[in-house]
Design goal:
Length: 243
Amino acid sequence: MKTLGVVQFQQKTFKILPIEGKWKATLGNIPAHFMMIIYGDSGNGKTELCIQLAKYLTQFGKVQWLSYEQGHGFDLQTAINRNKMQEVSGNFLVSDPIADLDANVSFREDLDNMLKKRNSADFVFIDSLDYTQFNWEDYDFLKKKYGNKKTFIWISHAKGKKPLKRIGEQIMYDGGIGIYIKDFIAHVTKNRFGGFEPYVIYEEKARQLNPLFFIPKVAEQGQKPEKKPKIAKLTIEAQGVCA
């Protein structure tokens, strides 16, 4: 057990990533190392958001994409090409963790071996959690060993508005940020760091699938809704006609 006095605790410093613009509005004042889960159904922009985020994070360190689900597949290549990831090629790596994996080595052991190497990635995308077969013990191991050194972004399929599997829900409750993807819009479901603004991943598709999202809300404009004028009822007496 380690105990600090209140003044000592108040003087404790944390490294905060200097993110700006729409990313800050969604993510808030994020520390250099945190746990995050991004989840949603296929075809709603999940991979697209994560590639955009990966590109942004290359400003702050090395990013490694672990493609458990697709490997070095065509769909992932297309998303990488679309976002011009060659512009950050020095800080972005794509790994197929299953290729050439020794049958006696588990996914967790393989990941641990990669992360403990000198100059390993600062930001690690796990694509996807559902294909790793990780459980709470695996997650807890990685968090305790690397939680103060690395950022983990876990990508998951969804069941309704929650991560597909129990471990996904546990990561959302335990981690710093949870983001649900629907209709090419990222909705923040949990954030310990202050950001809660939705993030539009691909506006053209989002407008097609969810046009109501883009209608300005009266309350946000600081205006009161206009009252409909009352229509006067003409009575027989008002018309001056005797019954």
